[in-house]
Amino acid sequence: MEIFQQILFVAALAATAWFITKRIQLISRAIKLGRPENRFDHPDERLKTMLLVAFGQKKMFTNLLVGSMHFVIYAGFIIINLEILEIILDGILGTHRLFAPYITPIYPILIDVFEVLAFGVLAVCVVFLCRRFIARVSRLQAERHRELRGWPISDATLILTAEIFLMIAFLTWNASDSVLRDRGVGHYGELQGIVPDFLVSQYLKPLFLTFSDMALVAYERTAWWLHILGILAFAIYVTYSKHLHIALGFPNVYFSDLQPKGEMQNMPEITKEVQLALGLPVTTDGSQVNDNGEQPVEVGRFGAKDVQDLKWINLMNAYSCTECGRCTAACPANITGKKLSPRKIMMDTRDRLEEIQRGWQTHGNEYKDDKSLLNDYITAEELNACTTCQACINACPININPLDIILQLRRYRVMEESQAPASWNAMFSNIENNMAPWKFSPSDRFNWADQVNDAK
Amino acid sequence: MTQEVKTYTVPTMANMAASGEEPEILFWVGCAGSFDDRYKRVTIAFVRILNHVGIKFAVLGPEEACTGDPARRAGNEFLFQMQAMSNIQVLNGYNVKKIVTACPHCFNTLKNEYPELGGNYEVIHHSQFLQGLINEGRVRVKDGQSFKGRRITFHDSCYLGRANKVYEAPRDVLAALDADLVEMKRVRANGLCCGAGGGQYFKEPEPGKKDVNVERVEEALGTGADTIAVACPFCMTMMSDGVKNKNREDSVRVYDISELIAQGQGL
Ligand code: SF4
Ligand code: SF4
């Protein structure tokens, strides 16, 4: 019986590892669709940013209450991994609480900490569900934000509910285990005097006192299996969900923009053309430098029409987005009822990538469809509404830059498709002909100086 | 008794170069500062302050051209770089080292975006420049000027604040006025855009519930301020239009910080 469980367990573990590896390969292949961009400079500053913003959750704490609640889930997630290590080893070796006899004095302290965290996670997940469905926090409502309709809301609800069940499984498992130990049943009894009652689960013991020994063992086994299988399933599920941020959030912050937020990236391929047009010496060959800082690669389109015209960091941003909507809640265009939502820009980019992934899976890796991010996902109306105010970048807890994607799509529309709104075209020609965005004669530019000595 | 007659001068780079001189700073006026009737008054106020403190400055005058900011942000990179490179040729030709400008968009572009195209200058915004003058005691608002008891609220411009983290300089300048500085709900890094950036100023807004400047002005009026201070030509227009939209133009005024300082100095 024991060996049967062990075999089953190892099989489950191997299957999970296989699935996750496949998913990682697929996702990294999708991210590599993006254009090269060097984000390996200034390692010290990057590390510091990652420690502060990702590990330290600095930007989450701009809202102290939500920040603290998220921190409980985050800390719980990281620390409970220690417990999972024991569970996995128990599962493989067919042991029971493997670590307990070796670290007897600190074992109960550890488990107490896990239990408190588990209870904390449970409580926070309940509060988060209430925020969504009872307090109806505006940025999380599908009625107000069309990008949340359907799957995104289910995804969020599913994961919160799953976490609640995982934590209940963990706590009741400990409680039933304690009762079995008290009764001296089988190997459970061997831990008498080594493993005491734990901080939270002791209060759940009365639930199990009426159970027969057999029923109790059955419950203990079921809870144990549910807990660990739940965790393995969670690990696979995460790769399909906005919860991928628990892994990608860290590299995403490490590789985030270091330049001032107002700086828009230069296009070297255009510099060359302009230098030629102005009769200046050409200082750039217009090629882009790849991540090793060497080999020049081919110049693509001016601006971006689809995901492969974006940079790899834009695509990593899309997979990292937590769909929290802080960007959208800060966006002046969205606040005043325009169609633009920076969260939707990120979700569209990811949806487009996943569509391409599905294409690869059904038609092979060379498959291309005739859709594109621009128009099929993101419309001109959304793009044109952006004031480039950078509030979205500032608000994002993991340093995602939706504005960068918006700007690259605008570039494509203006430079490749000549599709700017008419009044922008007028502004462009004014700058070209009058050196100012308005239709004034350049020779009048200095007329204001005639008035410096006029009375106020 | 003779009335002191003040005369202000506006030297150009071309004149200075002709007489073999180099100014301490170049005042980059910007398109709005040159052509917009309302913002010309800001340019003039700032020039009067420069004259008053006796700093050796110059402007490009007719040689100045749009930095290209609205073109770049609307997506026309080609036009932006044309503007940038011709401007850089002019600036480098005059050996310009230090630039001050009253426009956060010019400020951001000259400071952050020109270096990659060969234009390297020390660029400061006029709020930082005024802050320096106040700290050095070169500008002191006279006691008993008209600011006591007035409520002023400051609207952060995106390209000064979030883009370049200049939050305190304009507030320090306003603090020198001895007025009552009241803050809006969304300030500094969380400040709400006036709605004009990214080329929006040059076209109709997309359909929505309301215009961004109206939302922002409602917030400003909510503080009970009678003066909305700005530090950007686009914010100036957007806030003024918002005040009009709310029919408050009789009781609420929009001023650039340099105008308030000039007023405080009696310039
Ligand atoms: S930069 Fe554009 S998308 Fe981002 S908050 Fe501002 S208006 Fe919205
Ligand atoms: S881009 Fe950032 S702020 Fe916006 S939804 Fe995604 S994670 Fe949240």
UniProtKB/TrEMBL annotation, chain A:
Pfam families with a match to the protein in the record: Fer4_9
A single GO molecular function term of this UniProt record: metal ion binding
Cited Gene3D superfamilies: Alpha-helical ferredoxin, Transmembrane di-heme cytochromes, Chain C
InterPro entries found in the cross-reference section: 4Fe4S_Fe-S-bd, 4Fe4S_Fe_S_CS, HdrC_iron-sulfur_subunit, Helical_ferredxn, NarG-like_sf
Keyword Nucleus: no
SUPFAM superfamilies: alpha-helical ferredoxin, Respiratory nitrate reductase 1 gamma chain
The 4Fe-4S ferredoxin-type domain, residue ranges: 312-343, 376-406
GO cellular component terms given for this protein: plasma membrane
Transmembrane segments: 6-24, 64-89, 109-130, 151-173, 222-240
UniProt entry keywords in alphabetical sequence: 4Fe-4S, Iron, Iron-sulfur, Membrane, Metal-binding, Oxidoreductase, Transmembrane, Transmembrane helix
Protein name (database record): 4Fe-4S dicluster domain-containing protein
Record organism: Spirosoma endbachense
Organism taxonomic ancestry: Bacteria, Pseudomonadati, Bacteroidota, Cytophagia, Cytophagales
